[in-house]
Amino acid sequence: xxxxxxxxxxxxxxxxxxxxxxxxxxxxxxxxxxxxxxxxxxxxxxxxxxxxxxxxxxxxxxxxxxxxxxxxxxxxxxxxxxxxxxxxxxxxxxxxxxxxxxxxxxxxxxxxxxxxxxxxxxxxxxxxxxxxxxxxxxxxxxxxxxxxxxxxxxxxxxxxxxxxxxxxxxxxxxxx
Amino acid sequence: xxxxxxxxxxxxxxxxxxxxxxxxxxxxxxxxxxxxxxxxxxxxxxxxxxxxxxxxxxxxxxxxxxxxxxxxxxxxxxxxxxxxxxxxxxxxxxxxxxxxxxxxxxxxxxxxxxxxxxxxxxxxxxxxxxxxxxxxxxxxxxxxxxxxxxxxxxxxxxxxxxxxxxxxxxxxxxxxxxxxxxxxxxxxxxxx
Lengths: 176, 192
Prior knowledge:
Helix content of chain A: over 70%
Distance between the termini of chain A: 9 Å
Strand content of chain B: under 5%
Largest sheet of chain A: none
Number of strands of chain B: 0
Helix content of chain B: over 70%
Largest sheet of chain B: none
Number of strands of chain A: 0
Structural class of chain A: mainly alpha
Oligomer: heterodimer
Number of helices of chain A: 8
Largest interface: A-B, 106 and 101 residues
Radius of gyration of chain B: 21 Å
């Protein structure tokens, strides 16, 4: 695990170096390209800001009302907290439908337990290795009018489940 | 979908709060949640602008094209039913590479184009072909190499080392993608 964490620190600087060096060898005005891209990124964040404000207000309301802890209590009857915290289950279920709503719940876990806590690390990994299955399927299949999706859903759910199990396992390793 | 989810969050929150005497907390937290979102976005403005700037350099340097070409053998293995020179191959490689780099705006158009081109090879319209199912499973198994958004969120929420998740996330993504491919390859044999 130490090696893995060491590599984590290396990747970003390495990617940065590689990309900028490739830009230079391709004879590009790299800083001009950078500024152009940074403007896109800026606009993207400004674009999601209203969404995020709405969602974080929504999640905060739900938590302050006590409903989230009620839901967590309900879920903990079925699955032991040792295996997976009930808060994480709600994130997984929401993530199948909406990425931004799941992000709202994840941020709530960060502020409740901390970003480096076990639930915080678990949710960081889980959201990094899963996709919004139902949303993606409907957009892509609708674009070519496909009604019978055959084995797409079971296959995607299998991949998603594998990612979640790995995330829970790795988050525990990171904590040690 | 999000419309219902969001409305449900607020309506349930208010009703639940009314019955449990937590309505003043509800008001307070709605405001603080909105405020928190703004300070999060300020952090994200820095990190995401930096990252999209760097990715623009990568795109202009031709890395997207270069990687897509390197992906060809892999595409051949995954989609044996699609002829080698079919335009769907190129669209699928672009989509996969863009997803890996986290370039959502480049990934989705290429993905939709790939679906349309795969549909030209479809002789049972309205039913997904093996190639379509496999392509989407691969897509939904998450391919992103560096979860830059998550790093930004973590840095805003006081993580000591926000980027510590890069390698573990890569491992988890590799496993979910491997399981996705395996499931696709097995299911395509048995599914009618």
